[in-house]
Amino acid sequence: MFQNQRQIQIEWGDCDPADIVFYPRYFAFFDASTGALFEAMGYSLRDIRGQANQVGFPMIDTRSQFYKPSKYGDIVLIESQITEVGDASFDIKHRLFNDEQLAVVCSEKRVWAGLNEQGELKAQVIPDDIRQRMLA
Q: Which Gene3D superfamilies does this chain map to (predicted)?
């Protein structure tokens, strides 16, 4: 299934007073990595929102395991891969490496969402062209 990599440098604002990444920042890294994954597939969030009533792919479940801390100035590699594609939802696994060692694993479940006639946010079937790219 589709995968992507990106490298980031840990910034001072990502860290807590112990000089390690404050754990909510990892979730921001992974959210941005999901966006980068879709851009690598050829679909920016702007493109997705441009489709009729498409809002995007909100998170419905996330969890992480932390193995090694990262600190200010570290350059880390995030590997993101779509691991499962359903009718209206999909799963992504992110693996963050620091100095070539696995530091964090995160799993996400997201739902393809749009607005119905009443303006309510509802799950929708993933468009076929996007589904095919996800499965590539």
A: Hotdog Thioesterase
